[in-house]
């Protein structure tokens, strides 16, 4: 049923197996086509159409961006008769509007001309991909995704904690995949992987330091919560505290997308809690105390080296040993005992 222009269609594939086609509607104006090409460039996507289960089609929306009731009728170019004329759900933000219908797999994204910064439009336009990943157990995380020899870790923390500074200081062979956002998913083998997402503030300012390639996932081995300190040290987080920290990082990542109706917002809050608890059981989390001139990455490397090559789905690292808690949400002591 897709009406995508093949000249402006791109493939986004997650490690979970979820695949998306992102493209301009056939007949979309030149401004929309250029917008889609720029969007794909920031995501690091390649042109092409694969076996995508879902599709985001971009077009223009005419009229007032504050009134979405009749948006489907004002979508340009007009869609053919293969699309239903009723049952569309509409909500918008940041100069763009998402138009969905339970009867079709395509999601329409209408762009209002010169209504908002392009970075805000693009972040909002990516929200169906993030919501779909959450429905499958994934979670966006406010944090930098870095990797060393094919193993990824996330450096999370509040704004100002030093994520970008730490990324700048990492020596070779460490590599920065993204310094602000990551999308964590369970891959097709059941293991935890992470994808980088664009740093939208850098897109907005035009000061992009690290290019993003969303399709390039890495196996995720640990999550570190950054705190500035006078010496570098690692503090393992107990299971319950780990889940709380992961959920907080998820809420931070989703805060700019706070656009959902009450019913759907409730579902997203449940996803955050449930998926954070699951991730806390699968991925060890630590508080990483970082000093300005220290070699914090050596502490991270120690954790990776102590961990087994394959991180099981329900084990947590405590002092270099793996424990098997019966219920992460119930709380785990610093030595791995259930409390």
**Low-confidence regions:** 65-69, 309-339
- SS content category: alpha+beta
Strand content: 25-35%
Question: Number of folding domains?
Answer: 2
How far is it from the N-terminal to the C-terminal residue, by CA?
Answer: 54 Å
Mean pLDDT: 83
Helical content stands at 25-40%
Q: How many whole angstroms does the radius of gyration measure?
A: 21 Å
Q: What is the number of helices? A: 8
Largest sheet: 7 strands, mixed
Q: What's the overall geometry?
A: elongated
| Total count of strands | 17
* Secondary-structure element string: EEHEEEEEHHEEHEEEHEEHHEHEE
Summarize the structure.
By secondary structure, the chain is α+β, with helices and mostly antiparallel strands.
Description:
By secondary structure, the chain is α+β, with helices and mostly antiparallel strands. It folds into two domains: 4-125, no CATH class; 138-330, no CATH class. Helix content is 27%, strand content 30%. The chain is built from eight helices and 17 strands. It has helices spanning 30-43, 118-125, 127-135, 163-169, 200-205, 239-254, 262-282, 296-306, and strands spanning 4-13, 19-25, 54-61, 75-76, 89-93, 96-100, 106-111, 139-148, 151-156, 175-178, 181-186, 192-197, 218-228, 233-236, 285-290, 316-318, 321-323. The strands form three sheets. Strands 1, 2, 3, 4, 5, 6 and 7 form a seven-stranded mixed β-sheet that branches. A five-stranded mixed beta barrel has the order 8-9-13-12-11, surrounded by five helices. Strand 16 and strand 17 (321-323) form a beta hairpin. Helix 6 (239-254) packs across helix 7. The protein is elongated, with a radius of gyration of 21 Å.
């Amino acid at each position: 049923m897709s009406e995508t222009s093949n000249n402006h269609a791109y493939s986004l594939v997650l490690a979970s197996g979820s695949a998306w086609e992102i493209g301009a509607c056939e007949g979309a104006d030149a401004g929309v086509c250029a917008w889609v090409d720029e969007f794909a460039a920031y995501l690091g996507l390649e042109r092409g159409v694969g076996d995508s289960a879902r599709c985001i089609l971009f077009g223009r929306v005419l009229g007032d961006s504050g009134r979405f009731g009749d948006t489907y009728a004002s979508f340009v170019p007009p869609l053919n008769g293969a699309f239903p004329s009723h049952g569309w759900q509409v909500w918008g933000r940041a100069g763009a509007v998402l138009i969905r219908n339970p009867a079709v797999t395509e999601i329409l994204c209408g762009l209002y001309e010169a209504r908002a910064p392009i970075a805000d439009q693009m972040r909002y336009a990516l929200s169906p991909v993030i919501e779909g990943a959450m429905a499958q157990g994934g979670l966006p995380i406010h944090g930098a995704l870095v990797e060393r020899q094919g193993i990824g870790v996330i450096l999370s923390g509040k704004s100002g904690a030093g994520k970008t500074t730490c990324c700048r200081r990492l020596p070779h062979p460490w590599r920065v995949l993204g310094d602000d956002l990551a999308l964590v998913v369970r891959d097709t083998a059941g293991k935890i992987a992470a994808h980088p997402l664009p740093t939208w503030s850098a897109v907005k300012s035009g000061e992009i330091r690290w290019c993003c390639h969303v399709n390039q996932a890495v196996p995720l081995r640990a999550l570190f919560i950054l705190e500035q300190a006078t010496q570098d040290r690692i503090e393992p987080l107990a299971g319950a505290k780990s889940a709380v920290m992961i959920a907080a990082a998820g809420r931070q990542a989703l805060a700019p997308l706070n656009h959902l109706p009450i019913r759907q917002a409730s579902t997203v809050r449940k996803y955050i809690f449930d998926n954070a608890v699951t991730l806390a059981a699968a991925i060890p989390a630590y508080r990483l105390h970082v000093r300005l001139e220290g070699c914090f990455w050596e502490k991270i490397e120690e954790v990776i080296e102590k961990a087994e090559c394959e991180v099981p789905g329900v084990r947590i690292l405590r002092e270099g040993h793996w424990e098997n808690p019966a219920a992460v949400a119930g709380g785990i002591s610093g030595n791995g005992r259930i409390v």
